[in-house]
From TrEMBL:
Protein name: Helix-turn-helix transcriptional regulator
UniProt-listed Gene3D superfamilies: lambda repressor-like DNA-binding domains
Domain HTH cro/C1-type, chain residue ranges per copy: 16-70
Pfam annotation, one family: HTH_3
Length: 122
């Protein structure tokens, strides 16, 4: 963890991206409503840049949710299904979740899993 960002920044960004995606908004559309560049939205969503309290309030207003919705609850952190809910909250995640069971070769499924785990760790 570097000095500038922490795990919570990534968690907030993930939830921001999931909410935006669930509403069918592009990063550009959200950026326009916030008055920032789409690159800045990307950085927020990846947890590369921290979101200030005032900006987080603005994001919550635009996305029609509360600021608290961007933070993991203690119980959610202990919930093994929390990651699955985050996965299916995005279009890419839903596509992957729908396609994965159609891979019938166990070796291919294992290879895909290893690739995803490696990419997530990078």
């Amino acid at each position: 963890m570097n000095r500038r960002t922490q795990d919570i920044d990534a968690a907030v960004g993930l939830r921001m991206a999931a909410r935006r995606s669930a509403l069918g908004l592009s990063q550009t559309a959200l950026a326009l409503q916030l008055g920032v560049s789409f690159q800045q939205v990307q950085k927020y969503e990846k947890g590369a840049n921290r979101v200030s309290a005032s900006r987080l309030h603005q994001v919550a207003t635009v996305l029609g949710c509360s600021v608290a919705d961007f933070f993991p609850a203690r119980a959610e952190a202990l919930d093994p299904m929390a990651g699955l809910r985050d996965l299916v909250a995005t279009a890419d995640g839903r596509a992957m979740a729908e396609a994965f069971p159609r891979i019938h070769d166990p070796a291919v499924r294992q290879a895909v899993t290893r690739v995803i785990v490696a990419l997530a760790s990078a």
